[in-house]
Amino acid sequence: MADSADRYDRRAFLTRGASAAAAVGLAGVGLPALLSGCGTSNGGSAAPRLSTPGVSTATPRRGGTATVGLNSEIDGFLPSASHWDNSGLTYANTLFDPLTVIGADGKARPYLAQSVTPNSDMTEWTITLRPGIRFHDQSPLNADVVLANIQALQTSALTGQALRGVVDGLTKVSDMAVMVSCAEPIVAFPQYLATQVGYVIAMAQLESGSSTKPIGTGPFSLVSWEPNDHLTATRNPDYWRPGLPYLDTITYKPIANDQSREASLRSGTVDLMVTRDPNAIKDLRGDPSFQQVLNPKVGQGDMDFIILNTDADPTNDPIVRQAIACATDSAELVKLFGVGVAVPNLSLFPPGSPYRPEDNGYPQYDLAKAKQLVAQAAPNHGGSIEIALATITDPRLLEEVQAVASMWGMAGIKTTVSEIEQVTFIDNLVTGKFQAYTDEMFAATDPDLNYVWMSPTTANGPIALNFSRNKDDLLEAALQQGRTSSAQQARIQAYQEVDKRLAQDLPYIWVSLATWSLTGSDSVMNFNNLTLPDGSHSLGFANGVFDPTPVWRKA
């Protein structure tokens, strides 16, 4: 690839299928935002700029509006049926509330729940709700509503797989408490309540099954939603957190094209912008007109990778998968497209994670070995190795997969490249109608949240949330050890073994750590500074998700 820089623009490397796991639901965490900043005093007079973006120590000004540019659109607001990606979780933080949120230390903190308490072996968890909270329709939050929400999630074809083993039984303890029985010890149970399955909707929405008329307890309530154009919400005057939110209204505009979204921020059409385009991150981070927040180094961020279908020929052949891994020069791809922002990563876990082994055994780039493996495997696949590699419809992504295809071609793998509309792309992932797709997923504050995406128990059937359909009993044993062990050292050992098994099985061709940022104009204050009910601060902007509750605007 010595001359590859001449053939490909140095654009942002982003091997993803529109965050496919999140679009199916449950990936990532509904994360209210963390401390960081710049500020003005009440009424808009100048105040000293702080060293951390997105935080203001000035007295908040009530009123005004803000417009946020998002990178995608969702298909509805029903947690048990809708496909929420980072944009969906941001909408959820606007209209609903989760039972728990993630603190700045990466631990789950009660939110709608007053407490989440286990029994001695963590096979039963009691969720006690805060009193006096009402939904937008003035109906009360109580145990009956939470029971109905969890039952809907448990019986859903979408979310039921994720809750398998996590929710085995439900008991109403009192008017304000529910006990969840687990099939086995679930150490990370409170973390699950901060994901899509932890957001609570009103009984009226549950009973109607509406995915377009959300009724939550959130800081804002829906005014209008025109898919792929805008979502506008107005301040909830009866919000259970006194004094919040500050804005009168907030509007979200899905702008799929990265350059158009950046242009909208620069022109003032939007006040805040979510992106994971390294070019935009680099362009904006040195501009004093803007505040930029990057992904925090807490937990496990999203990974960019290529997912291989282990049930489809020829990617069902371990030798072929090893050849693909050896033929993929991740460092070169990031050099070509990462503009100094993206970082290569050949592990499920980021550098510095205790769950990352010193050497997971993942194959290094080795073109000669890739050629040898292709020659070895070819007689078992009609004399040649032919792969269909696809991404979602996006000119930038197309350039990047063309670079990947060129690498594979140099190893003797005949690779065809195509673009697929996002809806079809996601359908093909869950139904197994693919060979090699770009993807982005695995953001989690606890590694057990990724169990559903990797376990052999979710790799079968017409709809499989283990998209790769990789079936490895040793991998399952390690996942189970991590899921059920309360001792941290045992969990570390388990998830290091998970990483090693994935490096052997190769359902994922790792490329880089995903890049996410939230950039705002200096007129929008405190977009990364939510204080929790217990006085602590939440985990900040992460993996494209933020919480609008603390945002206020200069006059």
Characterise this structure.
Helix content is 27%, strand content 19%. The chain is of the alpha+beta class. It has a domain at 4-20 and 303-513: Dipeptide-binding Protein, Domain 3 (Dipeptide-binding Protein, domain 3), CATH 3.10.105. A seven-stranded mixed beta sheet has the order 8-9-10-1-11-19-12, with helices on both faces. Helix 9 runs antiparallel to helix 11 and helix 15 packs antiparallel against helix 16. The longest helix is centred in the last third of the chain and has 18 residues, at 488-505. The radius of gyration is 23 Å and the shape is globular.
In short:
Helix content is 27%, strand content 19%.
Question: What is the CA-atom radius of gyration, in angstroms?
Answer: 23 Å
Which percent range describes the beta-strand content?
Answer: 15-25%
- Examine the secondary-structure arrangement and name the CATH architecture of the domain at 4-20 and 303-513: Roll
Q: Give the low-pLDDT segments.
A: 1-18, 25-50
Shape: globular
Derived structural class: alpha+beta
Main sheet?
7 strands, mixed
Amount of helix = 25-40%
CATH topology of the domain at 4-20 and 303-513: Dipeptide-binding Protein, domain 3
Number of strands: 21
Observed structural traits:
555 residues; alpha+beta; Dipeptide-binding Protein, domain 3; globular; disordered N terminus
Give the secondary structure arrangement, pairings included.
Elements: H1 4-7, H2 20-24, E1 65-70, H3 86-95, E2 100-102, E3 108-110, E4 113-118, E5 124-129, H4 143-155, E6 169-174, E7 177-181, H5 189-192, H6 203-208, E8 220-226, E9 230-235, E10 249-254, H7 258-267, E11 272-275, H8 278-285, E12 290-294, E13 303-308, H9 318-327, H10 330-337, E14 343-344, H11 367-377, E15 385-392, H12 395-410, E16 413-420, H13 422-431, E17 436-441, H14 451-454, H15 473-484, H16 488-505, E18 508-513, E19 517-521, E20 524-525, E21 552-553
Parallel strand pairs: 1-10, 1-11, 15-16, 15-17
Antiparallel strand pairs: 2-3, 4-5, 5-7, 6-7, 8-9, 9-10, 11-19, 12-19, 13-17, 13-18, 14-18, 20-21
Helix pairs in contact: 9-11, 15-16
